[in-house]
# Entry
Amino acid sequence: MLLKVGKYVVLIIAAGLIAYNSVYIKKLSELRSAEVKPFNAKEYARDYLYKKLPSSAGKAIEINELLAQLETNPLSAFSKYSHSLSEGDSKYFLVSGTGTIAEISDEYIFLKSKTAANVKIATEYIVGNTARDASGLISMDEFGNSMDINTVSEEINKLIKTEIIPPVKAKAKKGDLIAFKGCIELSKSDVKLDNIEIIPVFLTIKN
Amino acid sequence: MSRPYSLQLAKFQSLIALFILCLALSILSDKFLTVDNGWNVLRQISVNICISVGMTLIVLTSGIDLSVGSVLALSGAITAGLLKSGIELPGNDLFIGFTMLGAILAGLLTGSVLGCFNGWIITRFKVPPFVATLGMLTIARGLTMLWTKGYPISGLGNNFAFIGSGWFLGIPVLVWIASVVVVLSVFMSNKTAFGRYIFAIGGNENASRLSGININKVKVLVYTIAGLLAAVGGIMVTSRLDSAQPNAGMSYELDSIAAVVIGGTSLSGGRGSIMGTVLGAIIIGVLNNGLVLLDVSPFWQQVVKGFVILFAVIIDKANSKAE
# Structure
């Protein structure tokens, strides 16, 4: 009889110990107030495009100067001015400049170029990570996961397409002088300078 | 009187088949007989071994369990869900969080309860095991979808992932778990009265009843153990993927039945062994691995596996007749 009772006591103690180590109870309200605010890619993209990027205006290299350096010493130009968050061959540059509008199509604003390069500002297809990576202001460490950083790219592109380009494109006409700050993508292993496509992050007509 | 030579040979048929398979694959692929591939095969079959051991016990009682794959999925999902999100009780302003131990125990309990329910339905209402467990297959899969809302539950932490991808004393943790399951099951089936009852029921249910064995109790317990082992498999799969997938364990029941049959356990019950099933699971694992290494199309792999199962059943029938 005593043995049986002892057996039950041991079993109850074991079950209690297991239960104690299996669950923990907290106040739901306290837990919710301590929860980390979920990442807001839209807010981040807006802050980047309208606050961080303008404050680092000095980091953008004048486009003709960049093209000249890429012609003469591409390796040095890439190491000095390019950025990328990935290990791939594509590198991104933050450039600035002014140019006279040579032509306006549905997809681009073509500029009269002082060099042989065909320089155009994209106005329709704003895709990829060019605008996100070119400045070098965004670091992977800021993000908890790769999905967030990809969403940031999407949101920046969306803002450029919907807020940066339309007001300028609406009043731009052939012959206007346009000032821009934008981002370009170049392949490090195959540098092609004859066709430069700029993703604009700042645009204004100077006339 | 000594048994005919062919019958003695039949006892080792699975082992002979495995040996021939390994020999052929070693000749056909230089990647097969490597240490890394050996561990890879053992890790892959660990889950099937756990499920198949439970299936063996059921088949020995001349039953069948079609629900193990779904029970595996639900148990894994419950474990993952509780570990990741716990239970919220907004009405009481309470959050019940689960430690890894708690979540695993809840997963094991889920499998056991579903297995017990299978056994109860089969014994209480005399529903054929095929039909009862077919019902559970659908019920458990539906519950898994409800619990996960159709999405995987991922990011379960390094400690939990260690079960599926870690090593202990130079051996993968998954292999340790499968080994413990096998050792305990062999002991139970060969050295305990309960194990003898399982064989007796499968051999002749009426005679067992008349000799005083509580048939229903043994059967319910056997189905409960099978559910528990399916849950063990579910936790292993979830940990290995670091994610509970709503469609996990699909057609696992077929692989486990195949392992049981290839291992020489008679589908009519009463004859077979856990070690035979382990061999059967290894044969299926080696066959899968070999066909992948030989770059055989997945569609042909299924065809080959099907023929192997048919061949095993035909051999089993021939052996029964000879005996």
